[in-house]
Specification:
This protein has 10 helices and 13 strands. It is an alpha/beta fold. The chain has a 9-stranded mixed β-sheet, with helices on both faces. Strands 3-2-6-7 form a 4-stranded mixed β-sheet.
Length: 328
Protein backbone atom coordinates (compact mmCIF):
# COMPACT_ATOMS: atom_id res chain seq x y z
CA UNK A 1 0.00 0.00 0.00
CA UNK A 2 2.88 2.36 0.85
CA UNK A 3 4.36 1.98 -2.65
CA UNK A 4 0.98 2.66 -4.21
CA UNK A 5 0.72 5.95 -2.32
CA UNK A 6 4.23 6.94 -3.37
CA UNK A 7 3.54 6.18 -7.03
CA UNK A 8 0.30 8.17 -6.91
CA UNK A 9 2.16 11.08 -5.32
CA UNK A 10 4.81 11.01 -8.05
CA UNK A 11 2.17 10.85 -10.79
CA UNK A 12 0.40 13.91 -9.36
CA UNK A 13 3.61 15.92 -8.89
CA UNK A 14 4.00 18.89 -11.23
CA UNK A 15 7.80 19.03 -11.04
CA UNK A 16 9.57 16.44 -13.19
CA UNK A 17 13.07 15.37 -12.11
CA UNK A 18 15.94 16.50 -14.33
CA UNK A 19 18.16 13.55 -15.23
CA UNK A 20 21.39 13.59 -17.22
CA UNK A 21 22.34 10.37 -19.02
CA UNK A 22 25.92 9.97 -20.23
CA UNK A 23 26.89 6.89 -22.19
CA UNK A 24 27.25 4.90 -25.38
CA UNK A 25 24.55 5.93 -27.83
CA UNK A 26 23.41 3.25 -30.27
CA UNK A 27 20.79 2.54 -32.86
CA UNK A 28 19.01 -0.80 -33.22
CA UNK A 29 17.91 -1.56 -36.78
CA UNK A 30 15.49 -4.41 -37.39
CA UNK A 31 15.02 -5.90 -40.85
CA UNK A 32 11.71 -7.77 -40.75
CA UNK A 33 10.77 -10.44 -43.24
CA UNK A 34 9.88 -14.04 -43.86
CA UNK A 35 12.09 -17.02 -44.68
CA UNK A 36 10.52 -19.93 -46.52
CA UNK A 37 13.43 -21.28 -48.56
CA UNK A 38 17.15 -22.00 -48.42
CA UNK A 39 19.59 -20.17 -50.69
CA UNK A 40 21.02 -22.25 -53.56
CA UNK A 41 24.35 -20.43 -53.01
CA UNK A 42 24.91 -21.51 -49.40
CA UNK A 43 23.00 -23.37 -46.65
CA UNK A 44 21.39 -20.20 -45.30
CA UNK A 45 17.78 -18.96 -45.29
CA UNK A 46 16.66 -16.37 -47.82
CA UNK A 47 14.81 -13.52 -46.12
CA UNK A 48 12.15 -11.71 -48.10
CA UNK A 49 12.23 -8.22 -46.53
CA UNK A 50 8.87 -6.69 -45.61
CA UNK A 51 9.85 -3.80 -43.39
CA UNK A 52 12.72 -2.01 -41.61
CA UNK A 53 12.63 -0.15 -38.30
CA UNK A 54 15.21 1.79 -36.28
CA UNK A 55 14.94 2.27 -32.52
CA UNK A 56 17.09 3.87 -29.84
CA UNK A 57 19.64 1.61 -28.15
CA UNK A 58 22.29 1.70 -25.44
CA UNK A 59 22.26 4.91 -23.41
CA UNK A 60 19.56 6.23 -25.73
CA UNK A 61 17.29 3.37 -24.62
CA UNK A 62 17.85 4.42 -20.99
CA UNK A 63 16.78 7.92 -22.02
CA UNK A 64 13.69 6.53 -23.70
CA UNK A 65 12.75 4.69 -20.51
CA UNK A 66 13.20 7.86 -18.44
CA UNK A 67 11.04 9.87 -20.81
CA UNK A 68 8.23 7.30 -20.52
CA UNK A 69 8.45 7.66 -16.74
CA UNK A 70 7.88 11.41 -17.23
CA UNK A 71 11.37 12.72 -16.46
CA UNK A 72 13.06 15.69 -18.11
CA UNK A 73 16.05 14.07 -19.78
CA UNK A 74 19.30 15.24 -21.33
CA UNK A 75 21.80 12.94 -23.03
CA UNK A 76 25.54 13.40 -23.54
CA UNK A 77 27.72 11.13 -25.65
CA UNK A 78 29.24 10.72 -29.08
CA UNK A 79 28.03 9.65 -32.48
CA UNK A 80 29.57 9.59 -35.92
CA UNK A 81 28.93 12.06 -38.69
CA UNK A 82 26.73 9.73 -40.72
CA UNK A 83 23.10 9.11 -41.76
CA UNK A 84 22.31 6.86 -38.79
CA UNK A 85 23.37 9.68 -36.44
CA UNK A 86 20.78 11.90 -38.10
CA UNK A 87 18.15 9.21 -37.57
CA UNK A 88 19.04 8.91 -33.87
CA UNK A 89 18.89 12.68 -33.41
CA UNK A 90 15.48 12.77 -35.07
CA UNK A 91 14.23 10.02 -32.75
CA UNK A 92 15.56 11.83 -29.68
CA UNK A 93 14.06 15.15 -30.70
CA UNK A 94 10.70 13.55 -31.48
CA UNK A 95 10.74 12.25 -27.91
CA UNK A 96 11.46 15.74 -26.56
CA UNK A 97 14.92 14.69 -25.37
CA UNK A 98 17.62 17.34 -24.99
CA UNK A 99 20.33 16.07 -27.35
CA UNK A 100 22.49 19.22 -27.27
CA UNK A 101 25.12 17.34 -25.25
CA UNK A 102 25.98 14.98 -28.11
CA UNK A 103 29.34 15.49 -29.83
CA UNK A 104 29.99 14.36 -33.40
CA UNK A 105 33.20 12.31 -33.72
CA UNK A 106 34.12 12.00 -37.38
CA UNK A 107 36.75 9.35 -36.59
CA UNK A 108 34.13 6.68 -35.80
CA UNK A 109 30.74 5.48 -37.01
CA UNK A 110 27.58 5.72 -34.96
CA UNK A 111 27.16 2.36 -33.26
CA UNK A 112 24.54 0.37 -35.18
CA UNK A 113 23.24 -3.12 -34.43
CA UNK A 114 21.30 -4.60 -37.33
CA UNK A 115 19.13 -7.62 -36.63
CA UNK A 116 17.64 -9.69 -39.44
CA UNK A 117 14.35 -11.15 -38.31
CA UNK A 118 12.23 -13.92 -39.83
CA UNK A 119 8.91 -13.54 -38.04
CA UNK A 120 9.90 -13.13 -34.38
CA UNK A 121 13.10 -15.16 -34.78
CA UNK A 122 16.47 -13.44 -35.07
CA UNK A 123 18.57 -15.03 -37.80
CA UNK A 124 21.58 -12.76 -37.72
CA UNK A 125 23.00 -9.64 -36.05
CA UNK A 126 25.49 -7.35 -37.78
CA UNK A 127 27.34 -4.71 -35.71
CA UNK A 128 28.90 -1.53 -37.06
CA UNK A 129 31.04 0.15 -34.40
CA UNK A 130 34.40 1.36 -33.16
CA UNK A 131 35.29 0.63 -29.52
CA UNK A 132 38.57 2.57 -29.21
CA UNK A 133 38.76 5.08 -26.33
CA UNK A 134 37.67 8.59 -27.24
CA UNK A 135 40.34 11.17 -27.99
CA UNK A 136 41.33 13.96 -25.60
CA UNK A 137 39.74 16.72 -27.71
CA UNK A 138 36.41 14.86 -27.62
CA UNK A 139 36.75 14.45 -23.84
CA UNK A 140 37.19 18.21 -23.46
CA UNK A 141 34.17 19.04 -25.63
CA UNK A 142 31.97 16.60 -23.70
CA UNK A 143 33.11 17.75 -20.26
CA UNK A 144 32.36 21.36 -21.18
CA UNK A 145 28.84 20.39 -22.26
CA UNK A 146 28.30 18.32 -19.12
CA UNK A 147 29.55 21.08 -16.84
CA UNK A 148 26.97 23.46 -18.31
CA UNK A 149 24.15 20.96 -17.67
CA UNK A 150 24.99 19.88 -14.12
CA UNK A 151 23.50 22.99 -12.51
CA UNK A 152 20.01 21.88 -13.53
CA UNK A 153 20.55 18.13 -12.99
CA UNK A 154 19.10 16.10 -10.10
CA UNK A 155 21.07 12.89 -10.77
CA UNK A 156 23.58 11.59 -13.32
CA UNK A 157 23.34 8.14 -14.91
CA UNK A 158 26.33 6.58 -16.68
CA UNK A 159 25.28 3.92 -19.19
CA UNK A 160 28.42 2.01 -20.18
CA UNK A 161 28.28 -0.40 -23.10
CA UNK A 162 32.07 -0.59 -23.46
CA UNK A 163 32.10 1.22 -26.82
CA UNK A 164 34.91 3.64 -25.97
CA UNK A 165 33.13 6.66 -24.49
CA UNK A 166 33.55 5.86 -20.81
CA UNK A 167 37.30 5.38 -20.87
CA UNK A 168 39.24 5.46 -17.58
CA UNK A 169 40.44 9.00 -18.27
CA UNK A 170 37.06 10.44 -19.22
CA UNK A 171 35.10 8.58 -16.53
CA UNK A 172 37.40 9.73 -13.73
CA UNK A 173 37.32 13.36 -14.92
CA UNK A 174 33.54 13.12 -15.16
CA UNK A 175 33.12 11.65 -11.68
CA UNK A 176 35.37 14.35 -10.21
CA UNK A 177 33.28 17.01 -11.96
CA UNK A 178 30.05 15.54 -10.59
CA UNK A 179 31.47 15.29 -7.06
CA UNK A 180 32.61 18.92 -7.22
CA UNK A 181 29.06 19.89 -8.16
CA UNK A 182 27.47 17.69 -5.49
CA UNK A 183 25.72 15.32 -7.92
CA UNK A 184 25.08 11.64 -7.25
CA UNK A 185 26.26 9.32 -10.02
CA UNK A 186 24.75 5.92 -10.77
CA UNK A 187 26.59 3.52 -13.10
CA UNK A 188 25.36 0.67 -15.27
CA UNK A 189 28.78 -0.96 -15.81
CA UNK A 190 30.40 -3.00 -18.53
CA UNK A 191 33.75 -4.76 -18.82
CA UNK A 192 36.23 -5.72 -16.11
CA UNK A 193 37.92 -2.40 -15.28
CA UNK A 194 35.70 -1.16 -12.45
CA UNK A 195 38.44 1.06 -11.04
CA UNK A 196 37.34 3.71 -13.54
CA UNK A 197 34.04 3.98 -11.62
CA UNK A 198 35.82 4.89 -8.36
CA UNK A 199 33.78 7.59 -6.65
CA UNK A 200 30.37 6.65 -8.06
CA UNK A 201 27.48 6.69 -5.59
CA UNK A 202 25.89 3.47 -6.90
CA UNK A 203 26.92 0.74 -9.35
CA UNK A 204 24.45 -1.74 -10.88
CA UNK A 205 26.13 -4.95 -12.15
CA UNK A 206 24.31 -8.19 -12.81
CA UNK A 207 25.40 -11.32 -10.95
CA UNK A 208 27.66 -12.54 -13.75
CA UNK A 209 29.33 -9.14 -14.10
CA UNK A 210 29.89 -8.98 -10.33
CA UNK A 211 31.58 -12.40 -10.37
CA UNK A 212 33.84 -11.39 -13.26
CA UNK A 213 34.72 -8.00 -11.76
CA UNK A 214 35.76 -9.55 -8.42
CA UNK A 215 37.34 -12.69 -9.91
CA UNK A 216 34.86 -14.79 -7.96
CA UNK A 217 34.68 -18.36 -9.23
CA UNK A 218 30.96 -18.67 -8.61
CA UNK A 219 28.13 -16.86 -6.87
CA UNK A 220 25.50 -19.37 -5.81
CA UNK A 221 24.53 -18.21 -2.31
CA UNK A 222 23.59 -14.92 -0.69
CA UNK A 223 26.77 -15.06 1.38
CA UNK A 224 28.91 -15.31 -1.76
CA UNK A 225 26.96 -12.48 -3.37
CA UNK A 226 27.36 -10.16 -0.38
CA UNK A 227 31.06 -10.96 -0.04
CA UNK A 228 31.73 -10.22 -3.73
CA UNK A 229 29.62 -7.05 -3.61
CA UNK A 230 31.47 -5.66 -0.61
CA UNK A 231 34.74 -6.47 -2.27
CA UNK A 232 33.68 -4.34 -5.24
CA UNK A 233 32.38 -1.57 -2.96
CA UNK A 234 35.78 -1.42 -1.28
CA UNK A 235 37.52 -1.33 -4.67
CA UNK A 236 35.38 1.46 -6.13
CA UNK A 237 34.59 3.38 -2.91
CA UNK A 238 30.95 3.42 -3.98
CA UNK A 239 28.23 3.61 -1.34
CA UNK A 240 25.87 1.05 -2.86
CA UNK A 241 25.67 -1.86 -5.25
CA UNK A 242 22.40 -2.97 -6.80
CA UNK A 243 22.92 -6.47 -8.20
CA UNK A 244 20.35 -7.71 -10.71
CA UNK A 245 19.84 -11.47 -10.38
CA UNK A 246 17.58 -12.41 -13.29
CA UNK A 247 14.75 -14.66 -12.06
CA UNK A 248 15.85 -14.02 -8.44
CA UNK A 249 15.11 -10.29 -8.57
CA UNK A 250 17.72 -7.84 -7.30
CA UNK A 251 19.77 -7.10 -4.20
CA UNK A 252 20.75 -3.78 -2.58
CA UNK A 253 24.07 -3.99 -0.76
CA UNK A 254 26.20 -1.50 1.16
CA UNK A 255 29.15 -1.90 3.54
CA UNK A 256 26.82 -2.66 6.43
CA UNK A 257 23.42 -3.62 5.00
CA UNK A 258 21.83 -6.02 2.55
CA UNK A 259 18.28 -6.36 1.27
CA UNK A 260 16.78 -8.67 -1.37
CA UNK A 261 13.87 -7.78 -3.64
CA UNK A 262 12.20 -10.88 -5.15
CA UNK A 263 11.16 -10.81 -8.79
CA UNK A 264 7.63 -9.57 -9.56
CA UNK A 265 7.27 -11.08 -13.03
CA UNK A 266 4.46 -13.53 -13.78
CA UNK A 267 5.68 -14.45 -17.27
CA UNK A 268 8.99 -13.84 -19.05
CA UNK A 269 8.82 -13.40 -22.82
CA UNK A 270 11.94 -11.32 -23.55
CA UNK A 271 14.68 -9.94 -21.28
CA UNK A 272 15.94 -7.52 -23.97
CA UNK A 273 16.41 -4.08 -22.46
CA UNK A 274 15.31 -5.13 -18.96
CA UNK A 275 18.61 -3.95 -17.48
CA UNK A 276 18.07 -0.49 -18.99
CA UNK A 277 14.56 -0.44 -17.52
CA UNK A 278 15.83 -1.26 -14.02
CA UNK A 279 18.61 1.32 -14.29
CA UNK A 280 16.33 4.08 -15.59
CA UNK A 281 13.69 3.32 -12.95
CA UNK A 282 16.21 3.40 -10.11
CA UNK A 283 17.54 6.75 -11.28
CA UNK A 284 14.08 8.18 -11.77
CA UNK A 285 12.67 7.20 -8.38
CA UNK A 286 15.79 8.36 -6.52
CA UNK A 287 15.61 11.68 -8.40
CA UNK A 288 11.96 11.92 -7.29
CA UNK A 289 13.17 11.85 -3.67
CA UNK A 290 12.37 8.25 -2.72
CA UNK A 291 14.75 6.24 -0.55
CA UNK A 292 16.91 3.70 -2.35
CA UNK A 293 15.14 0.62 -0.97
CA UNK A 294 11.79 1.90 -2.24
CA UNK A 295 13.37 2.76 -5.60
CA UNK A 296 14.64 -0.84 -5.84
CA UNK A 297 11.18 -2.23 -5.08
CA UNK A 298 9.56 -0.06 -7.75
CA UNK A 299 12.32 -0.81 -10.28
CA UNK A 300 11.54 -4.48 -9.72
CA UNK A 301 7.94 -3.85 -10.75
CA UNK A 302 9.17 -2.00 -13.86
CA UNK A 303 11.44 -4.91 -14.77
CA UNK A 304 8.54 -7.36 -14.43
CA UNK A 305 6.56 -5.34 -16.98
CA UNK A 306 9.52 -5.05 -19.36
CA UNK A 307 10.23 -8.80 -19.51
CA UNK A 308 6.55 -9.59 -20.12
CA UNK A 309 6.77 -7.89 -23.53
CA UNK A 310 8.77 -8.59 -26.69
CA UNK A 311 11.74 -6.30 -27.46
CA UNK A 312 13.08 -3.26 -25.61
CA UNK A 313 9.96 -1.67 -24.15
CA UNK A 314 9.80 1.46 -21.99
CA UNK A 315 7.53 1.25 -18.93
CA UNK A 316 5.10 3.89 -17.68
CA UNK A 317 4.07 4.96 -14.18
CA UNK A 318 0.51 3.77 -14.86
CA UNK A 319 1.76 0.28 -15.77
CA UNK A 320 3.76 0.08 -12.54
CA UNK A 321 0.73 1.23 -10.56
CA UNK A 322 -1.43 -1.38 -12.26
CA UNK A 323 1.01 -4.19 -11.37
CA UNK A 324 1.20 -2.98 -7.77
CA UNK A 325 -2.60 -3.17 -7.61
CA UNK A 326 -2.44 -6.79 -8.83
CA UNK A 327 -0.02 -7.68 -5.99
CA UNK A 328 -2.19 -6.18 -3.26
Amino acid sequence: MRHKEEILSIRKAKNQPNILVIGDIMADRYIWGSASRISPEAPVPVVNVKNETVTLGGAANVVQNLFKLNAKVSICGIMGDDPIASTVLDLLKSGKIDASGIVADKSRPTTLKTRIMAGNHQLLRVDRETTADIQENIETKLLNKIKAKLRHTDIVLLSDYNKGLLSYSFTQKLLTLCQTNGKKVMVDPKGLHYEKYTGAWLIKPNKRELAEATVTEKIETNEQLIKAARKLIAKTKSQYLVVTRSEEGLSLISKKSHEDFPVKAREVFDVTGAGDTVFASLGYFVACGLDLATACELANYAAAIAVSKVGSVAVTIDEILSLINEHE
